[in-house]
Specification:
Two copies of one chain form a homodimer. Chain A is of the alpha+beta class. Helices cover about 35% and strands about 20% of the residues of chain A. Chain A has a six-stranded mixed β-sheet with strand order 1-6-7-11-14-13. In chain A, helix 3 (about 105-120) packs parallel to helix 6 (about 170-185), helix 3 (about 105-120) runs parallel beside helix 17 (about 440-450) and helix 6 packs antiparallel against helix 7 (about 190-205). The longest helix of chain A has 22 residues, at about 20-40. Chain A is globular, with a radius of gyration of 26 Å. At the A-B interface, helix 13, helix 16, strand 16, helix 20 and strand 22 of A face helix 13, helix 16, strand 16, helix 20 and strand 22 of B. Strand 16 of chain A pairs antiparallel with strand 22 (about 640) of chain B, so a sheet runs across the interface.
């Protein structure tokens, strides 16, 4: 590890996203999702199940007031387990208690984080006022000792930190910290950051390697990376040490979760079985295979990469690389989706990537982007950015309807609606996006990811600006106290033309431009007297940049046919179509019923067609193929002796995977049989 | 329906199975399974979980004695629900109570039925004495009013017949009746038949269309067909009427099971959802699609066919035909397996026939044979016999190891052992057969089916002997008071030569010989002056048969390549290999790892090879094919642009499906990709 080379995301203030494609997405977040989610948090969406999130904060705040008013006469609530999700018997008859999932607080934090990124790029007084009101609710709910989790505050703080495995307190803290740092960076306001630091101190007083402190760690990871972020924002090493403690303690034997849950320790069951789900089955440095709940995994690995970078911890970094390779070489869908099984929403075993029962949660691909960006910070290799791009343009975007109003948790690669309705093994696979969920992790996670997309597109070190994703934007790069402006114009993902205009100040710095896996036959125009170097998939252009300079790139946008490693049983004999970073799929609405009857010709090129889907213009693809015809004889029986297949030549119509299910319920298929 | 043409199975006494192939199987039943199961019923198998079956009868008997001894002072046990399966806390510390599944009684009945068939063909004094001892236990357990179910006798008869949906009392009765008729026919002994008739009268007094009687019907069907059998054995129409009542009442609205289980009636849930599992979602005559638990379905449809025949009920027969077609044209595996999903051990939706998660229970294929034989009795069409044969030679036989010592419940068409161990969706799929099950339905069901195989191979009407399956045997056919002997010699399933020697008496009768679907290019030799006719897949040879006549048949045993209806998504682009009635499969032990990498050549014939598997000689098949080679580049990554597939020519080795998993745990695949 060479920390001189570390790079970091730029403050969003120094980035203006001007990209045609992404501006649409960001506008959806700003104009649709953020206002919608605020309503959802306040239980104001008529058709959706209430969140109770804001309500819980208010109830906790009122309890605090009562406590102050009554002093010693106040009787603290004493904890009895109300259930993982608590709903009122009659929604009209709400009591002064906690409702919703135990992790409901995190939804507000995710919303504030998204708001922060939005405000940083689009100041909006009214939105800021709303956010400040929400922050005040959080302030009011916080306890005198810094503790802050409405579930335990309302149900009985005497049991705080006693069920780390299942109860998400430290998870909620992590989201609080992410929100607080983002909000502080966006607005300069310290209020939420202070709340967070007080809670962090409270946690640091409870947990740690010092004798007498609790040796637990989060059941659902995120605090690990959030604490590093809090450390980087404040410089307070307590937080970095606490993150490091959580990471190092995780999965050590005897298992902390066994101590916490003696009832669940069964004879003959290894910790491997009990805690793989939580990535707590062995010390993290020994973990070579990505296992368990995929979102938890992605968050942990991201935190490990952060800690490895800040602590220059080579063994931890080595573990990150191993886990990265495990995911990317054995457990990732071609769409950048992860989590092959809905049982535990988890990584399945190596090469087990079923298309129709996939879990591939939107949040899991977001977590993979987190992990990728962090690996890029340590070591800019384009293979990390390739995966980040793949996840972003496919599974992450698929998580949201084109109108920003409905969402997928699960992003399968093949859907046969009848099976989703009639086969209980596929009930997790929805055929159309849904409005809002009781467990609403994906929509707000999408909001915070998309509204901070600049953090993933570009990073910088002192003398280098990295362009990881070809997203159009205007970036300010400070070099030797002077500010150069880099204006990227990109026609991606539909075309391969990228123009980079530099308003330099005569200072020497480097533009590090990623060469995508799919575009390594690129053409470079301009950059005349720059020193050129290519390293690990990045093109480094170094010179003293003057005024009005321009570099142009042309990436070939050819239609590519991809195959999976033959060990992937589900895709043997099948092909997937990509163009640039976009994975394509066939939908019934374009190709008729029974997509499995369609085959791709072995040769025959495709052609691109610009078209509108649900009002959005995009590039679709037509390929030569054929449809197997079902003869009358075949239709009448189940089995028959083989005969010459009857087939008709057809044009197979492909649309971007992320745009599927925007035209009603229908069949969808990414992998197509080859003839 | 033309009842002059109805045909019936012959008494096993008039059949001697001499077939080389089937004698082996019957010997296994007689020498291995029946003694083994007796030990299992008596909890004497060291490694297997105890059955408690015999023990329950003894406990119930002791209760009866106590009742007689104490008279009015006896306190009847009062029912409280002990659970669907009750196990002792410590097996050493057994109490005077009921243990095992609520349907545990049926295991003894199934054993007695198998014993009866065995005794009928192979008298065995010692075995008969053991059976009589067992029957005495049953006699002792029966209540004065005829009631007989140890679960309720021990736990509290006050709740008898109050949970028909879940508690299998009428199911146990059905197996009792099957056993009693079989035992009576085999030995002439009336004891068990009397017990059964007393219980049947008790049931008939409780249930029926008369006012005041209970309008319930069995949650798990079998009583329907068993009552018809009891009627046919005794001539008592009460039993036929009771069967008819159960059939007619089933699925009528308001649902009886709703009344019984008001707690499970949920708003907005149609009876369709609640009772499809039990085939009680609509009146049986309206059922056009086979749904729900496959064994239950097969038993119900068999009972419907029996009742339709005895009552000359055309609408009921029409429903049987519809349901038959639903199964055979849309829901049956090529192995004659039924039940596409383990969820509810049930039929899945049309054309949903997954190979690796199939349930395809051994018992379900047995039930399909029951149904087929009954359809043949009404109308001898070879399509019924084709399916009966398919189920028998493939899924039914697969249920048992070649040494008769271990059993499959689930008979998948594709197994990748790692998936069965690591994918919770496949935990029902075992990779090797198991010794004995707590819920031991399949092994004793296999025993009773195989030991009465003559009931399926041949049936007769007054003037016709039907040969449905080419199983070698010597059959006595009575015509006009004289007895002709028909001696069938068959080289099936490995060769296609069948010789039928007739020792006639000069009387005119018809030999009705099935022409199998796979052998319609047969050759007939002999039968000189017989009147010949071919109808619905049967060849009818009518003449006055004299002494020492012979008819020979030659069926071509070519290797056949089969395809499924293209609407079966799981088998698109794949081929299955059959020869005669035998479905073949590839195993890892013969073909190496990763069977999915193997393809069959589009042309190129196969060759048969005689070989031994686990000590048994059978015909295996070699076919030309190739193996996809995984290049180093492919191995290093998950996805790559397509290139020319690297492949090597290999001989694919196929063994009979029923013989798979007799050489340790390994991959198996029925359907092979075509090149």
């Amino acid at each position: 590890m060479d920390n001189n080379k570390y790079n970091s995301p730029l403050p969003l203030k120094r980035i203006e996203i001007t990209d045609h494609f992404w501006k649409q997405e960001l506008n959806l977040v700003r104009k649709e999702i953020i206002p919608y989610q605020w309503k959802a948090l306040n239980d104001q969406i008529p058709d959706a199940s209430p969140s109770y999130c804001i309500r819980n904060f208010k109830v906790a705040g009122r309890l605090n007031e009562e406590r102050k008013r009554l002093g010693d006469a106040f009787v603290e609530p004493s904890y009895t387990y109300p259930g993982f999700e608590v709903l009122p018997e009659d929604p009209k008859d709400l009591k002064e208690q906690f409702y919703g999932f135990v992790f409901q607080d995190s939804d507000l934090y995710k919303w504030i984080e998204a708001v922060a990124y939005s405000l940083e790029q689009h100041p909006d007084q009214e939105l800021q006022k709303t956010a400040e009101g929400a922050i005040d609710l959080i302030v009011n709910a916080q306890q005198e000792d810094g503790y802050l989790n409405t579930y335990y505050i309302i149900n009985g703080k005497n049991k705080a930190f006693t069920n780390l495995r299942d109860h998400h307190e430290l998870y909620c803290f992590g989201h609080l910290a992410e929100a607080a740092v983002a909000y502080h960076q966006a607005t300069g306001d310290h209020k939420l950051l202070k709340v967070t630091e007080r809670f962090a101190e409270c946690i640091a007083a409870w947990f740690g390697k010092e004798e007498g402190k609790c040796k637990g760690y989060p059941g659902h990871e995120i605090a690990e990376m959030a604490l590093v972020r809090l450390y980087e924002a404040t410089g307070n090493e307590t937080y970095l040490n606490l993150s490091s403690f959580f990471i190092d303690e995780r999965g050590t034997s005897p298992y902390y979760f066994d101590k916490e849950h003696p009832e669940s320790v069964k004879k003959g069951q290894e910790g491997k079985i009990r805690y793989e789900y939580h990535q707590a089955h062995m010390p993290v440095r020994k973990q070579k295979e990505a296992v368990g709940h995929a979102v938890r995994g992605g968050y942990l690995y991201s935190g490990m990469a952060d800690a490895a970078r800040c602590l220059k911890d080579q063994t931890l970094y080595d573990a990150c690389k191993q886990l990265w390779n495990s995911i990317v070489n054995k457990k990732m869908y071609i769409t950048g989706g992860i989590g092959g099984t809905h049982i535990g929403e988890a990584f399945s075993f190596n090469y087990d990537l079923p298309n129709d029962t996939a879990y591939t949660e939107t949040c899991a691909s977001i977590s993979l982007m987190f992990f990728a960006r962090r690996m890029l910070q340590i070591n800019p290799e384009s293979r990390y950015a390739d995966v980040m791009e793949l996840a972003l343009y496919n599974t992450v975007l698929s998580g949201m309807a084109l109108d920003g109003k409905s969402f997928f948790y699960v992003n399968p690669l093949e859907v046969f609606p009848e099976a989703c309705h009639k086969d209980e093994r596929k009930t997790h696979v929805k055929t159309v996006r849904q409005k809002w969920f009781g467990c609403a992790c994906c929509p707000p996670n999408l909001a915070r990811l998309l509204s901070s997309i600049g953090h993933y597109a570009y990073t910088e070190s002192e003398d280098t600006l990295f362009i990881h994703l070809y997203i159009g934007g205007i970036i300010e790069k400070n070099v030797n106290g002077k500010t150069a402006q880099i204006n990227i114009h990109s026609t991606l993902p539909w075309n391969g033309e990228v123009g980079i205009k530099i308003q330099g100040t005569g200072e020497v710095f480097t533009l590090a431009i990623r060469i995508p896996m799919w575009g390594n036959e690129y053409e470079l125009i301009g950059a005349g007297n720059a020193k050129r170097a290519e390293r690990k998939g990045y093109l480094y252009l170094t010179k003293s940049w003057e005024k009005d300079e321009e570099v142009k790139l042309h990436f070939p946008m050819k239609i590519r046919r991809l195959e999976a490693n033959p060990l992937v049983r589900e895709t043997i004999g099948k092909i997937a179509i990509m163009r640039g970073p976009i994975v394509y799929c066939m939908e019934e609405v374009d190709n008729g019923k029974n997509l499995h009857l369609l085959c791709l010709n072995n040769n025959g090129t495709g052609e691109t067609v610009e078209r509108k889907i649900a009002g959005t213009t995009m590039t679709s693809i037509q390929m030569d193929g054929f449809r197997q015809i079902i003869s009358q004889e075949e239709e009448a029986t189940l089995y028959h002796e083989t005969w010459e297949e009857q087939k008709e030549a057809v044009k197979l119509s492909f649309v971007p995977y992320y745009a599927w299910a925007n035209r009603g319920e229908n069949e969808m298929q990414v992998w197509v049989r080859k003839a």
